[in-house]
Amino acid sequence: MSQTHDTRNTPFDTLLVANRGEIACRVMRTARAMGLRTVAVYSDADANARHVREADEAIRLGPAAARESYLKIEAVVEAAKRTGAGAIHPGYGFLSENGAFVEALDAAGITFVGPPASAIAAMGDKSAAKARMANAGVPLVPGYHGDDQDDALLKAEADKIGYPVLLKASAGGGGKGMRVVEAPEQFQAALDGCRRESQAAFGDTRMLIEKYLTQPRHVEVQVFCDSHGNGVYLFERDCSVQRRHQKVLEEAPAPGMTAELRREMGEAAVRAAKEIGYVGAGTVEFLLDKDSSFYFMEMNTRLQVEHPVTEMITGQDLVEWQLRVAMGEALPLQQEELTITGHSFEARLYAEDPEQDFLPATGKLTRFAMDLKGAGLDPRQVRLDSGVETGDVVSMHYDPMLAKLIVHGDDRDQALSTLNRALAALDVQGVVTNRAFLQRLATHPAFRNAELDTRFIEKNEATLFAPKQYTTEEYAGAALIGLNQLARECESDSPWDRHDGFRLNAPHTIRISLCDPAHVQDEASVVVVEGTRASGADPWDLTIGGETLTARLQHLEGDAVAVTLNGHRRRLQARRDGNVVVMVDPRGETRLFWRRIDAIDHGHHEAESTLTAPMHGTVVALLVETGQKVEKGMPLMVMEAMKMEHTMTAPADGHVESFHFNAGDTVGQGDVLLEFAPAE
């Protein structure tokens, strides 16, 4: 039987957002548009964060640790009282699905922008939730969700269901206490392991068992209910591309969805919400099998991270819907008034290193921008929901998601093309991100063909993480950008004072080396490019491995450039990150470390006066003293990056004038490590 939400039906003029990062900024954007005053809360680590800067008021909660700040119910409630906030929006994560928090707000007379505590509790216990869903006629994966947790009984139920089966912690989430059991003899060990994980994470050892679908898609339905008994579904999203049960790319509508299947899933989702007396925005998650059968997985009793793709295809602001429902208003639209227009994708930008098993990254964002004009993109088709700006620091204390890139197109192909162009236009420096990995996903043939299931990344790992193979055109493009940079640096100098090989009435020749930034010390990976031109107005003649190309560079809007090689012109986004040239187009990203190596002045080798960090890392040791005479090739300092040590060597005979860092310091890619004086 459905429960009734004891809503206050009271309008409010001040909204406190009990969250941080991009979702806090996104909620406040709509609140301000509705004329509401906004209040932010923050930890010591977020004292100058973007969501704090954008709010009308902000209240400190406590130290950096979430349990001492964003998860402190009493501190959040006190912040609302102190600022006169009549309502609190929880965002997602933190306290968004905490029934005790909702009860505390009810007791304090503060409106919770979300469902009643009873609905959160109903969906918080997976076993009980599945029983309620069965009662509402929502399809369930064949399985066991009972209270009897005897080992022998659980094994018998697994045998009855048929292998493979999925063991899941009843109180779990986020992939903890979850294992696939392929055969009967593996069951007991898997059960013991899941129970240990569940006890450690949730203080609960109860398990449920489900039939494991080998190639399911993760398709979820956005539902919305009000306190007047109305309920609608705002269609579905496909969230199948995941890593470690965490979504990476989402899209709406789901590819291959028929009108009949959409209606069946949507109506089942609304029944699920009404069964528990739901009010507000919620998401019912289903597993969709190859035969179009679908099964209830769980319900998220909050706004989802991927809600923008639904907003893009429906033209509705879901946060505005949330706030109006929380004020006691009826839903803005009925089911028959909702329609789908076009297609939308969302890509989650994380501060993490996909090449190092998605290890979270920290640091200062020296640049965070998206050059829409340079990429030729329509701002109405591209949305960047971000919680950071240039200059912000990414800390170790919270989720590494920096932003969400959302795009819209008339159909899936057009939206995917826009996504790739937008990813190419996204420029993030100072912190390692998964931007290039997102582009590899979005350009993967299987993704383009919508060959989707929840193991997409694992199945395509070999191609998604294949070593980069550089083409002659990529080497030439990087060389051209490096050569033009050198030429600009020399333009204001008198030719009589130059030491760069320039001679009046003679061609200007420069030689540079190019290599993968991760293999700067590996001589075998270096490719040498010789660039020659008569004057600054002439094109370069680039010689690479015996092949000569006529090359010209043209700067366009923003970070966009045009590279022309033997008459073939390509438009791309290009920038320099220290000594690394980064070139991005809708097909992917190329990063190449370049260094000048040309011989000048009767055979003397030109030595660089500085050495720069080839990548982000940590200084391990300084091997020489300043002023100490060294010979070419002698080790000067050691830095560690990507779990490997890299030794920086003397480029020529001479001495180190000064080191810019000490052992233990963190350095960014392109940072000047030391000043070097070559011997005369």
Automatic annotation (TrEMBL):
Lipoyl-binding domain mapped to chain residues: 604-677
Protein species of origin: Billgrantia sulfidoxydans
Domain of life: Bacteria
The keyword rRNA-binding is assigned to this record: no
Cited Pfam families: Biotin_carb_C (PF02785), Biotin_carb_N (PF00289), Biotin_lipoyl (PF00364), BT_MCC_alpha (PF21139), CPSase_L_D2 (PF02786)
SMART domains for this protein: Biotin_carb_C, GARS_A
InterPro entries the record matches: ATP-grasp, BC-like_N, Biotin_carboxylase_complex, Biotin_carboxylation_dom, Biotin_COase_C, Biotin_lipoyl, CPAse_ATP-bd, MCC_alpha_BT
Requisite cofactors: biotin
Domain Biotin carboxylation: start-end pairs: 11-462
Keywords associated with the record: ATP-binding, Biotin, Ligase, Nucleotide-binding
Protein name: Acetyl/propionyl/methylcrotonyl-CoA carboxylase subunit alpha
NCBIfam families recorded: PRK08591.1
Gene3D superfamilies, alphabetized: 2.40.50.100, 3.30.700.40, ATP-grasp fold, B domain
Stretches assigned to the ATP-grasp domain: 130-327
